């Protein structure tokens, strides 16, 4: 679907000088649609299409944040639906529509969502809570970390720092107490700031940096600061209590948009909707064909999906970090025999899988014209064979009315454009 929206926009708007806005370079939060039934006129939807095209060319993906007129938003799914209808109009009526109307498939606006809290470790780092009821509307709260750490906390809802109290034993709290806390392990890695209150929603967080399981997928684990049910979606739609309930670690890829919320089991307090998209995707490279193959040459551009260095070879050998370096802003010219192999090494020294590219070879059949000269020789009329194809060719012919493909009297003119007989 990522490629599909790009192709829809390309088919509408192949030439434009509009420069992409910087906000599309690195997307950090998803946006839904709050522009339902809004008309977008041709000049505006072509500019927007061009920005989507440029974002794809730069980042290898479409923007999740699509701003329409009057600073309104359109979700990825609704953008596909919008441009599919525009393309259908173009091919049915042989012209672009004067305007299009945004139709919200889900009618959800996610602009109020919060970025998912995440622990800065590679292994799961959590702080579990349990509490028991005491007399006189009191409770005893116990914080249990998954590894040895120092826990800083406050009791009044303010953000804790290293200057605040250190947790050493169970806390006595009341219905109105609002505990904020976080842990720091021996490697100075931290949990996010977590929250607990008897009648407050839980903080539901990602327990560690998602770990790569293969070239394209990551494993992600969720936890809550208060025993809760967690509901989630991974398709860009707003989660509800009818969505999938979280029970086991999730598998996501570079394009997954995870959205989730939690409901505490004892008092049914609902958390905000949290949003997460992998900010450190697997590096990969893409080849863009800037031109068709002409005269056996082609101009291409190699781009990566994230910051890093693109290494390449032109002779079919495997590139390393000592190979030639390609600037993604520049074009590369190659002929149909050139074998380009390229990789992207990101700023963390993680390398993409190898990409191989060779321009397609178009073989043009020879176009032969047999013409007579004006003069006669002593034995007959002089003839000329002219080859109108782009390349020099071997010309096979006979002079005894036999088929040059099968005859044993076939003669050959090697590597010629024109030949007199």
Strand order of the largest sheet: 5-21-20-17-18
Residue share in β-strands: 35-45%
Distance linking N and C termini: 60 Å
**DSSP strand tally:** 33
Low-confidence stretches: 15-31, 107-112
The whole-angstrom Rg is 32 Å
The dominant shape is elongated
Mean pLDDT score: 80
Largest sheet: 5 strands, mixed
Query: What's the total helix number?
Result: 3
Domain unit count: 4
Helix content: 10-25%
- Name the structural class: mainly beta
What are the SSEs and their pairings?
Layout: H1 2-12, E1 39-41, H2 42-59, E2 66-67, E3 73-74, H3 76-93, E4 99-101, E5 114-115, E6 127-134, E7 138-145, E8 149-154, E9 165-166, E10 171-174, E11 179-185, E12 194-196, E13 204-206, E14 211-212, E15 217-220, E16 222-224, E17 228-233, E18 244-245, E19 250-253, E20 258-264, E21 274-276, E22 285-289, E23 297-304, E24 308-313, E25 324-326, E26 332-335, E27 340-346, E28 355-357, E29 368-376, E30 381-387, E31 393-397, E32 411-416, E33 418-420
Parallel strand pairs: 5-21
Antiparallel strand pairs: 1-4, 2-3, 6-7, 7-10, 8-9, 8-11, 11-12, 13-16, 14-15, 15-19, 17-18, 17-20, 20-21, 22-23, 23-26, 24-25, 24-27, 27-28, 29-30, 30-33, 31-32
Helix pairs in contact: 1-2, 1-3
């Amino acid at each position: 679907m990522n490629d599909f929206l790009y192709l829809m926009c390309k088919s509408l708007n192949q030439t434009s000088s509009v420069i992409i806005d910087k906000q599309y370079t690195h997307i950090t939060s998803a946006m839904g649609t709050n522009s339902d039934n809004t008309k977008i006129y041709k000049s505006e939807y072509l500019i927007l299409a061009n920005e989507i095209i440029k974002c794809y060319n730069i980042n290898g993906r479409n923007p999740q944040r699509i701003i329409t007129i009057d600073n309104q938003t359109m979700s990825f799914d609704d953008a596909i639906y919008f441009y599919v209808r525009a393309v259908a109009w173009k091919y049915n009526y042989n012209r672009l529509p004067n305007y299009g109307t945004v139709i919200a498939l889900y009618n959800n606006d996610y602009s109020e969502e919060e970025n998912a809290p995440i622990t800065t470790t590679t292994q799961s780092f959590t702080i579990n809570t349990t509490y028991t009821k005491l007399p006189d509307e009191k409770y005893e709260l116990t914080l249990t970390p998954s590894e040895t750490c120092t826990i800083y906390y406050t009791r009044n809802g303010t953000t804790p720092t290293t200057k605040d109290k250190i947790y050493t034993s169970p806390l006595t709290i009341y219905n109105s107490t609002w505990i904020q806390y976080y842990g720091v392990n021996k490697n100075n890695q931290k949990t996010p700031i977590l929250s607990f209150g008897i009648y407050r929603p839980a903080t539901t967080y990602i327990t560690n940096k998602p770990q790569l399981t293969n070239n394209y997928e990551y494993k992600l684990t969720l936890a809550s600061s208060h025993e809760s049910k967690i509901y989630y979606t991974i398709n860009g739609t707003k989660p509800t209590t009818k969505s999938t309930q979280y029970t086991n670690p999730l598998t996501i890829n570079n394009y997954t948009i995870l959205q989730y919320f939690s409901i505490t089991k004892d008092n049914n307090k609902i958390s905000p909707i949290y949003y997460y998209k992998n900010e450190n995707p697997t590096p990969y490279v893409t080849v863009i064909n800037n031109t068709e193959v002409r005269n056996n040459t082609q101009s291409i551009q190699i781009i990566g999906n994230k910051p890093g260095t693109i290494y390449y070879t032109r002779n079919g050998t495997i590139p390393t970090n000592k190979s030639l370096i390609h600037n993604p802003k520049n074009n590369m010219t190659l002929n149909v025999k050139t074998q380009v192999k390229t990789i992207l090494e990101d700023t963390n020294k993680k390398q993409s899988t190898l990409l191989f590219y060779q321009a397609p070879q178009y073989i043009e059949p020879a176009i032969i014209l047999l013409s007579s000269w004006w003069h006669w020789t002593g034995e007959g009329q002089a003839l000329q064979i002219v080859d109108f194809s782009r390349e020099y060719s071997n010309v096979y012919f006979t002079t005894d009315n036999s088929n040059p493909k099968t005859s044993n009297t076939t003669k050959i003119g090697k590597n010629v454009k024109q030949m007199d007989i």
